[in-house]
Amino acid sequence: MTVNKALIIVLFLMSIACAPAAPMADDKIGAVVTVLPQVEFVSAVGGGRVDVTAMVPPGANPHTYEVTPAQMAKLSTAKMYFKVGSPIEFELTWLDKLTAQNKDMTVVDCNKGIELMQSWDSDEPGIDPHTWTSPKNVKIMVNNICLGLVQLDTVNKSYYEANRDIYLQKLDAMDSDIKLALAGAVNRTFIVYHPAWGYFAREYGLQQLGIEKEGKEPQAAYMARLINEARDKNIRVIFVSPQFDTRSAEAIAREIGGNVVSIDPEGRDYIDNMRKVAAAFREALK
Ligand SMILES: [Zn+2]
What we know:
The structure is a single chain. The protein is α/β, with parallel strands linked by helices and 286 residues long. Helix content is 48%, strand content 12%. 35% of the residues are buried. The structure holds zinc ion (ZN).
């Protein structure tokens, strides 16, 4: 064997020994979340170490969605489930069944430390489950996600914490921009078909009026009350979201000579989506 050949072999062996810890595709941690915005949160912290799937797919409604057999099968190989942890119907209905399907799966509660609030309409007792519409809550969720990943995969602690810090900075920047965008809002009351924006409204000093009552279409008398309120407060925009029927919102918009604007509380690209949401609010409330 020549010296050169021996050197090549030594270098080759060294390259194997010193190969970076980058995971192989099948080495990734299979993670499942409930709603699409959580995909961004878990991906942001987990980076190349996780493979994230949402149970409630794009356009589906997390208050009524039913798990498919294919999702059940996929779930049986997951290592972690990041639950929203608020009383969202999907988790109330399905989480026990999902964890029974995969008893080794670690369940992380994203809600730990978040202060839950009543639904927008105080006549109807109940908790608003849409915690992620407030960036402040998302920062708590992201910290919980990081703690969960570190607990399961401690050797990569510094990787997860560095990713977490980068994402928290992005959330802070987004939060400042939303505050700035809404600072000049003259009218601070808004009407929306599905009242998913309670935490957002509390955060930015707005008042939400929902058209939907307890998950149902409103009665005529209540519609009339909303129309009066919209006229009184000079509301010109009625918000809807892609997961719900828009007819009653359109009926109110026609009555007040306003228009309907769609904002998505379950957008997959959270930060981009929330910037669009803020722009829609700024436009509607000026
Ligand atoms: Zn909802």
